[in-house]
Design goal:
mainly beta, 2 domains, 6-stranded antiparallel beta sheet, 3-stranded antiparallel beta sheet, 3 helices, 12% helix, globular, disordered N terminus
C-alpha cells in the first residue's frame, strides 16, 4: 500500500483553544460556558461531551542506574568548572531509560550537573505506559535527578499524556456559579473510524496500517492518506450511560483537528521540524 502525499491546513478552532489557555487575559471565569439560570441555583440532567484528558504515570521502576570512571584523554570533554579528583578520579553516575533512549550522566559532585531531561512522542508504541492508548495526542517522558544527593541517587521518571476522550458531566449552578462534575470518562475508539476515504485505499488496508502502527493518530513520519473522522464511543452498558440520551453516545473528530493538535504538540512544544 503506497501512502499518498497529503497536505492539510491547520484547524484554527483547535489552535485557538490551545493558545487561549496560555493567554494572560484568560481566567477560569471567562472560560466558563454561557448559561441561563434565573434563580441562581439550577441543576440540569447529565450530558456527554468530547474532551481532552490527561494522565501521568510514574515510570521510575524502568530507570537503569550504572556507575563508572571516565578516562582522562585528549578526546574527553568535561563540563565547565570541572576539577579532576585525586589521581585523576572521574567517577560518574548514569541513569537511563533504555527503551526510550533517555540518559542523564553526571560526574559525581563535580562541575555542572544535568538535572532534567524530557522527550515527547505521538506514537503509542514509543511510550512505556500508554502503549494501549487508541486516541493519543502526545506523550511526554521526563527524567529528573537530585544532584544534591550522593551519586545523584534521587532519580525519578514520569510519563504524562494527552488523549481524546469523552466525558459524562453533571452541571449545576450554586449562587450563580457554574460547577461541572465528571461522572464518567472514556477513551473508546471505533476501530472502523479514522479510515481511508472510499476510493483511496480499502478499509482493510487502512485498518492493517492502524494495527501495525499501534493505532497512532499521527502519521507525520509514516506517510498517510486522507482519512474519515475519528469516532469515540461511550459504552451503552455503563451505569452512568443510563443517565444520558442514547443519541449522545458517539463523537466525531475531524482529520484536520487531529493533525493540528499532533502537529502543534510536536512542532511548537517538542521542536519537530515542519511541514505539517
Amino acid at each position: 500500500m503506497a501512502p499518498l502525499p497529503m497536505w492539510l491546513e491547520y484547524d484554527f478552532g483547535s489552535i485557538s483553544a490551545i493558545w487561549t489557555a496560555f493567554n494572560n487575559l484568560s481566567s477560569h471565569s471567562n472560560q466558563q460556558f454561557a448559561f441561563t439560570c434565573a434563580t441562581g441555583n439550577c441543576t440540569w440532567p447529565p450530558h456527554a461531551s468530547l474532551a481532552v484528558c490527561s494522565a501521568c504515570n510514574d515510570i521510575s521502576t524502568h530507570l537503569v542506574k550504572s556507575t563508572g570512571h571516565a578516562e582522562n584523554s585528549e578526546d574527553t570533554t568535561f563540563p565547565p568548572g570541572y576539577m579532576s579528583g585525586p589521581d585523576g578520579d572521574n567517577a560518574y553516575t548514569k541513569f537511563e531509560l533504555p527503551t526510550m533512549n533517555m540518559i542523564i550522566s553526571n560526574l559525581d559532585n563535580r562541575g555542572s550537573q544535568v538535572e532534567f531531561t524530557c522527550q515527547s512522542t505521538t506514537q503509542p508504541g514509543s511510550t512505556l505506559s500508554f502503549q494501549n492508548s487508541r486516541a493519543l495526542i502526545v506523550s511526554f517522558a521526563m527524567m529528573r535527578v537530585n544532584t544534591n544527593t550522593p551519586r545523584s541517587s534521587g532519580a525519578t521518571a514520569l510519563e504524562c499524556a494527552l488523549s481524546f476522550c469523552t466525558n459524562i458531566c453533571r452541571s449545576t449552578v450554586n449562587e450563580g456559579v457554574l460547577n461541572e462534575e465528571v461522572l464518567g470518562s472514556y477513551s473508546i475508539r471505533n476501530l472502523d473510524s479514522y479510515s481511508a476515504f472510499p476510493g483511496l485505499n480499502s478499509l482493510n488496508q487502512s485498518k492493517a496500517l492502524d494495527k501495525v502502527s499501534n493505532y497512532t493518530l499521527d502519521f507525520h513520519d509514516l506517510g498517510d492518506f486522507r482519512r474519515t473522522d475519528l469516532q469515540l464511543q461511550i459504552p451503552v452498558n455503563d451505569n452512568v450511560t443510563a443517565l444520558i440520551s442514547n443519541n449522545d453516545l458517539s463523537f466525531n473528530i475531524s482529520d484536520a483537528a487531529i493533525t493540528t493538535l499532533a502537529a502543534i504538540s510536536m512542532d511548537k512544544f517538542a521542536r519537530r521540524p515542519p511541514p505539517l
